[in-house]
């Protein structure tokens, strides 16, 4: 089905327009130029002959009335009349000789002799102006030729006017022939251009069809390889964009599969421990109360661990929902940081970790209180949990005219340099054994980063293994909602 939005159809239209319109315009220009030049040549030829006849008129005193009875005068007058008739017949026109008083002396049509003619052209001609007018609608060229007599004193006088109309039939016939020939040539050219447009458009659009075919293979699942169509710069750009999207989709697919595997493993581990503990109790008779209690405490610990994993997973799923609305309000970040530390100080006292908050200035920002509390809690709690005995945690709050920063530093165990690029990945643990001891799920930093991004902020980390880490969060003071979110 042919569609006007098709690139191939548009190429055909452009080629046809570029090929045909100039030909039509050129034909019109050539015919028009020929018409004007032919009219000029016809008028010039007739004028030259009329000038010769005007000299005959003067030499034979054609405008005199007192010699009408003279036989010699009559003979010369007949000769001039014959010349006028010849011109009239030759050019399929009409010639009138007009004397003083605008009286018509001779009319080759023989219908206006003796009458008076009053027209602008005749009057101007008696004043010495030579006028030529072409009437293309009625098909004739009209011209006035003054008959000028020069006296003995050298003074020129217009004694008469020759008003001539000649037909443009021969010009029209030539123009019609030119138009017919041009039309035949144009039809042949149009057929050639149509054939060329169809063929050329097919060749030009072939790379785009190839791109479409390759994309369809990926869509149908018959191929997952990057495609290559280097024919045009445009196809290269399209292919590169698609390959980047394909790579991202493959990465997301691999990440999803890895995430599912990690979730299955993390959820299966506590369940396995519970089964082992339960089987141990069931396999023994007369279990001592102390051992029974110890096993039950271990089972409760595994259940708590399972619950933490599920809770963090639910929190992460909520973070991933783009359409989830934020409750943005203006909050005192200083008060929020103090309240968070107040909740975490009991944990810090158990490990004898000193916690210090430094507020450089009062900070009020437009944030979601739940998300901001989550960020502070995760960073501060990690700094306390993964710290050394008698260590310290320092929280610094500052702001400029556009952003506020929250920096959480500690004297803890630190993060290996090779693990830094992966710490925000789900279920990733830099020190897996130590993380499990602390009850970590490997989701805390992933949740923190997601919350920071939702607040249009950024998070960065510096760390030295064995000396401690420093997380820095930067968030705008004024929240600007994104369109379409």
Keywords, separated by commas or semicolons:
10 helices; 18% strand; five-stranded antiparallel sheet; alpha+beta; rod-shaped; 3 domains; Heat Shock Protein 90; Helix Hairpins; single chain; Beta-Lactamase; 485 residues; five-stranded mixed sheet
Compile the SSE list and pairings.
Blueprint: H1 7-59, H2 71-90, E1 94-98, E2 104-107, H3 120-126, E3 131-135, E4 140-150, E5 156-167, H4 169-220, H5 233-282, H6 289-320, E6 328-332, H7 333-350, E7 354-359, E8 364-368, H8 369-385, E9 392-399, E10 403-410, H9 432-437, H10 444-454, E11 458-464, E12 468-476
Helix pairs in contact: 1-2, 1-4, 4-5, 5-6, 6-10, 7-8, 8-10
CATH-defined fold name of the largest domain: Beta-Lactamase
The mean pLDDT is: 82
- List the total number of helices: 10
The amount of beta strand, in percent, is 15-25%
CATH superfamily of the largest domain: PAS domain
- Shape, principal axes of CA atoms: rod-shaped
Radius of gyration: 52 Å
Low-confidence stretches: 432-439
CATH class of the largest domain: Alpha Beta
**Tally of domains:** 3
What is the name of the CATH architecture of the largest domain?
2-Layer Sandwich
Order of helices and strands: HHEEHEEEHHHEHEEHEEHHEE
Tell me the strand order in the biggest sheet: 2-1-5-4-3
């Amino acid at each position: 089905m042919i569609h006007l939005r098709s690139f191939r159809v548009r190429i055909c239209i452009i080629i046809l327009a570029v090929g045909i319109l100039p030909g039509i315009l050129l034909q019109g220009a050539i015919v028009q130029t020929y018409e004007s030049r032919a009219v000029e040549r016809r008028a010039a030829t007739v004028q030259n002959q009329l000038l010769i006849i005007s000299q005959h008129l003067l030499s034979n005193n054609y405008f005199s009335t007192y010699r009408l009875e003279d036989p010699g005068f009559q003979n010369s007058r007949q000769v001039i009349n014959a010349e006028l008739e010849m011109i009239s017949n030759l050019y399929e026109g009409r010639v009138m000789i007009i004397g003083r008083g605008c009286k018509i002396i001779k009319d080759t049509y023989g219908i206006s002799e003796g009458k008076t003619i009053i027209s602008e052209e005749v009057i101007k001609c008696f004043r010495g102006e030579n006028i030529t007018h072409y009437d293309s609608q009625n098909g004739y060229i009209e011209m006035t030729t003054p008959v000028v007599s020069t006296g003995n004193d050298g003074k020129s006088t217009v004694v008469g006017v020759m008003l001539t109309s000649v037909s443009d039939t021969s010009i029209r016939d030539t123009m019609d022939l030119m138009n017919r020939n041009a039309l035949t040539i144009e039809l042949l050219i149009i057929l050639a251009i149509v054939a060329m447009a169809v063929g050329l458009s097919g060749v030009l659009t072939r790379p785009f069809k190839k791109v479409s075919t390759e994309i369809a293979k990926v869509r149908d699942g018959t191929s997952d390889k990057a495609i290559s169509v280097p024919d045009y710069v445009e196809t290269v750009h399209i292919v590169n964009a698609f390959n980047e999207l394909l790579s991202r989709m493959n990465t997301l697919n691999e990440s999803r599969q890895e995430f599912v595997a990690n979730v299955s493993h993390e959820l299966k581990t506590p369940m396995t421990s519970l089964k082992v503990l339960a089987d141990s109790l069931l396999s023994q008779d007369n279990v001592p109360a102390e051992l029974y209690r110890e096993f039950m405490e271990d089972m409760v610990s595994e259940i708590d661990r399972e619950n933490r994993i599920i809770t963090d997973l639910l929190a992460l799923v909520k973070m991933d929902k783009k359409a989830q609305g934020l409750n943005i309000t203006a909050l005192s970040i200083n008060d929020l940081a103090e309240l968070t530390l107040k909740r975490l100080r009991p944990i810090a006292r158990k490990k004898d970790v000193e916690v210090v908050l430094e507020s450089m200035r009062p900070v009020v920002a437009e944030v979601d209180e739940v998300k901001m509390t989550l960020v502070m809690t995760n960073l501060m709690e990690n700094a306390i949990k993964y710290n050394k005995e008698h260590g310290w945690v320092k929280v610094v709050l500052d702001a400029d005219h556009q952003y506020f920063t929250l920096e959480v530093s500690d004297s803890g165990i630190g993060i290996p340099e090779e693990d830094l690029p992966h710490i925000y990945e789900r279920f990733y643990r830099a020190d897996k054994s130590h993380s499990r001891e602390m009850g970590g799920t490997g989701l805390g930093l992933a949740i923190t980063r997601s919350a920071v991004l939702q607040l249009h902020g950024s998070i960065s980390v510096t760390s030295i293994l064995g000396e401690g880490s420093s997380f820095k969060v930067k968030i705008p003071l004024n929240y600007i909602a994104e369109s379409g979110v």
